[in-house]
Specification:
The protein has about 280 residues and is of the alpha/beta class. It contains 10 helices and 10 strands. Strands 1, 2, 3, 4, 5, 6, 7, 8, 9 and 10 form a 10-stranded mixed beta sheet that branches. About 40% of the residues are buried.
Length: about 280
């Protein structure tokens, strides 16, 4: 099913493509994501925009959502029928089709501030050496989610992901270093954080295609860690806190044993590739 609208866009700020992968989505959260995306796109001033929803399974009929986007002058199409190929592979289906200047990788549980894309695209225009921009990420209460990371150890991931909160306090300083709390704030741009979150990544499309998108060996988890580290080989990464989003996601350990198993499997793939660091 396709709903297409040619926005007759402008060369500045440039053509933009967006991909969102959904799997048994929370429809209310997804609708909120699309509403805030539409508002942020309106603030750009009319570039060519194409949104791809990648249905990995379990989605309701998305016709109403895409038709609503079409009324807001946003071209939208749905890729479906391929089964649950994983988060990174799902995005790669859209990335392979992208013919844009910039590509936004977005989670279906993210809300963009109205000026988020305008600020992000302006920053990329002013900094041509930056190939990937990551925003300030907050939770529902307005607290910073420290999702820029230094290279983790196995112990860091165990403490952060699986220890109860009462025990995690024993490792506050260690986790603070891993989460870059000494550098990340809501004011200052940070150049070249080692790892950034896959919930919202704005790439130059040519950089993303040069990297081949996500490594599909990761079914879920750590695909953003891997992509971040590979991006440093070809372009700079910038954390730009004037670009703001709210992320409603949660950790793997709170989602049950299937997610824990996927987390551990992807963690092993990540360390096999980049080197095991235990402590």
């Amino acid at each position: 099913m396709n709903v297409n609208f040619d926005a007759g866009g402008l060369s500045d700020p440039g053509r933009l493509s967006v991909s969102i992968v959904v799997y048994y989505p929370d429809v209310a959260l997804l609708a909120g994501t699309l509403d805030t995306l539409a508002a942020a796109l309106c603030a750009i001033g009319g570039p060519q925009v194409r949104l791809t929803l990648v249905d990995n399974g379990g989605s309701p009929d998305l016709t109403a959502l895409t038709e609503s986007l079409a009324l807001q002058r946003i071209a939208a199409n749905v890729i479906t029928g391929h089964g649950n190929v994983g988060y990174g592979a799902g995005h790669n289906l859209a990335i392979a089709r992208a013919q844009s200047d910039f590509h936004l990788i977005l989670n279906p549980d993210v809300e963009l501030s109205p000026d988020a894309l305008a600020r992000a695209l302006a920053y990329l225009r002013e900094h041509p050496d930056v190939g990937l921009l990551t925003p300030w990420i907050g939770d529902e209460a307005g607290r910073t989610q420290f999702l820029c990371r230094r290279m983790p150890t196995v112990f860091d991931l165990f403490v952060r992901g699986f220890l109860p909160r009462s025990l995690r306090t024993l490792f506050t300083r260690r986790l603070a270093r891993y989460e870059m709390r000494d550098i990340i704030n809501d004011r200052d741009v940070v150049n070249d954080p080692p790892i950034v979150s896959g919930c919202c990544m704005l790439f130059r499309t040519d950089v993303l295609k040069r990297l081949g998108g996500f490594d599909e060996r990761y079914f879920l988890y750590f695909e953003d860690y891997d992509l971040s580290l590979r991006t440093h080989d070809v372009a700079r990464i910038a954390y730009v806190p004037s670009v703001r989003i709210v992320h409603h996601g949660g950790g793997a350990s709170r989602k049950g044993w299937t997610h824990i198993r996927l987390f551990v499997a992807s963690m092993a793939k990540f360390f096999n590739r980049f080197g095991w660091k235990w402590l």
